[in-house]
Amino acid sequence: MALKGNVAVNRILRLLVAAFVLQAIIARAAPLPEASPEDVGLSSGRLARLTATLTTAIESGELPGAVIMIARDGKLVYSQALGWQDKAANVRMREDAIFRIYSMTKPIVSVAAMTLVERGQLSLDDPVSKYIPAFSDMKVSVEPGGEAGTAQPVLVDARRPITVQDLLRHTSGLTYQMRGPQTEAKRLYKQANIFSQHWMLENFANALAALPLQHQPGTTWEYGHSTDILGRVVEVAAGMPLDRYLQQEVFDPLGMKDSAFRVAPDKQDRIAEPIPDKYTGKTPTLIDVRNPVTFFAGGHGLTSTAGDYLRFSQMLLGGGELDGVRVLGPKTVRYIASNHLDETISKGDDFIAGPGYGFGLGFATRLEYGQSNWPASIGEFYWGGYAGTYFWIDPEENLVVSYMSVEPLRRQHYRVLLRNLVYQSIIE
Prior knowledge:
- By secondary structure, the protein is an alpha+beta fold.
- Helix content is 32%, strand content 14%.
């Protein structure tokens, strides 16, 4: 009897081990088919420079950790989880770590809006007030000495309505209160507590519509709450909450199983956290993604993984299709990845896309091989997130890169470094 009992126990243990191994395999499943770097014209030796450089930054205490995935010709050829996912809890980085992607939410919401355009439920020349009536009869705040020539800020009528295209390309006149010189419009944003995370999206949109614009619609590229308002437009046009529409039309079709506005309790052990800054000792404060969310912020609210975002990027590189599932048509993808800023639109002094770039519908897009302080191809398009995340898509090189980290203070330094190290690894 004891022998039979041992056999039964051993069988159960084997089944448990097999189940554990299967779960581990599923957890490590690559987001795309895999190949060696040399199979697609990259150098393993040169990619090792990327690993070594980021490892040095992690060991110095400047960077907590990172997940980097590179795909070429539709094949995943480099995937590394380096450093710490949560150093305070002694948790090493894993490839399926979940990150707050902040402004990398914008391209996803922009794609969602374009699915509605393709279905005839939304048009780029629609006034935003068609979906959010509070955006009728907008005012623009003019600074002292501006077009009104007064000693104090004054409000003037908007010369034309804000359109859906304005929201997508950041020419709506909306701003962010914490960027650039303080103005009357930004002071009023702060007074209204616009950057609170406790809004409902509908109430947020109505509150923002009651405040003056920073610029006349269609005249100036100004980074701001445009995509948050676009998220509300998507809700109204689709007839459902933004989180549900993204799940239905983007995340589920693309197999982006870890992308959401909130990290579910059973996944919270995978959240990547910042470390105290090496130079100041202060730990960056990031948005809460553990508790239930009421504010589906289309400009900054999503969480995701390097693998999920690689699949989203590969879909765009594939002309709107991935694994036989089509999200957008190829002409639509080419259109949104093209420059939408002509000579009549001012880029101002705070055009964060940088020299050599224009801006499309949700993405910065490369116009010149030179000018920028990093290499890329004409037609490449990209964006990043406040907490240190970044991606780009290079159609000429058939290349996509997804980079996730939690280092907001020197994020631009690491983006340039990443660019240089990825492009130097291309040998054919």
